[in-house]
Amino acid sequence: MNDASVKKERAALAGLNADCFEESDNSTDITMQELMALVETAGGEASGYLIQHRAAPDPGTFLGEGKIEELKELIAANECDFAVFDNELSPSQMRNLSEALGVKVMDRSGLILDIFAQRARTKEGRLQVELAQYKYLLPRLTGMWTHLVRQTASGGRSPIGTRGPGETQLETDRRHIRRKIQKLEEELSEVRKVRSVQRRQREKNEVPVAALVGYTNAGKSTLLNSLTDSAIEANNRLFDTLDTTTRRLKIDELYEILLSDTVGFIRHLPTHLIEAFKATLEELCFADLLLHVIDLSSPEWEEQARVVEELIVKLGAEQTPLIRVYNKCDKCIGELPRDRDGVFISALNGDGLDTLLGKMGEILGAGKKRARLTIPFSRGDLVQELHEKAQVISLDYSEDGTIIEAVMKPDLWEKVRAFCS
Question: What is this structure's pTM?
Answer without folding.
Answer: 0.73
